[in-house]
């Protein structure tokens, strides 16, 4: 049987369509292309994957037009979503539990940090003779914002050593140069923050570190298990209404997580905005090195993470009833799992 040129073209066309079929099946229409993300301290290494996903165009690759609104702390970023001015929070995992305790369903769907990456340090100028937690009584402790994860670590540390949150004064100092100035000028006696702020104060000897959750070991020693930290989370209603959009967000974040693990501090410092370096690229790069282990390599939330966070909240929040919380309802790895299948190499 002879095959004409027209037959060949038909066969080639059919083969092309068949080859495209899986891609067509996989391509899911986004329910929402414009997404507003609220974050509390965008320049922090705690949220580095968010900045990398934006800077390297990963959101755009997924067909998303993402706007990022930066706030003084995670609690204020959450307020933006509660108030309706943002769709998704780039914030601390434990806020999903706190919201469930108030009867509001929020769920984390991709991880940025697998350790809190928060350091608490006391001022060597204001507290030169610091001996232990009891010395913090009556002192001013700077956090990014009251109610944020930096506040949580302070409260957990105090409770662990028999002190109450009311034994200290919590002062919001933000997550940038203002936080460094607040400590150096003596406005606060101690600080709870993340890098690069912590390294900016630690390396010149301005502070003595008394709590360090930048490594997995230290985090597990302090909290008794894996403590998920920075993540993207949203109201359950948003996730239910926009599953393809949430998948696209997750794809971008998982690519960022993987790129960070492959790139060195030098390359990362070139990609982020210059303002992130706080005027000292060497300190910023050193801070990246210290925090790299705490950043998620794949966006997956650890299986025991919610239970660990629940115990931490119950340990220091007097009005928090952990018995009423279902930890399984505040997180999912479904989106991150699919993102890893799509981008195994980032």
UniProtKB/TrEMBL annotation:
Give the SMART domains listed for this entry: PBPb
Q: Which gene encodes it?
A: ssuA_2
Q: Does the keyword Signal apply?
A: yes
According to its UniProt entry, this protein's organism is: Achromobacter ruhlandii
Q: What name has this protein been given in UniProt?
A: Aliphatic sulfonates-binding protein
Q: Which UniProt keywords apply?
A: Signal
- Which InterPro entries does this chain map to? Solute-binding_3/MltF_N (IPR001638), TAT_signal (IPR006311), TAT_signal_bac_arc (IPR019546)
**NCBIfam families this protein is in?**
TAT_signal_seq
Q: Where in the cell is it found?
A: Periplasm
List each copy of the Solute-binding protein family 3/N-terminal domain by range: 34-263
GO cellular component term, pick one: periplasmic space
Reading the lineage from the top rank, the first entry is Bacteria
| Chief place where the protein resides | periplasm
Membership in a protein family: Belongs to the bacterial solute-binding protein SsuA/TauA family.
Pfam families per UniProt:
NMT1_2
Listed GO biological process terms: alkanesulfonate transmembrane transport
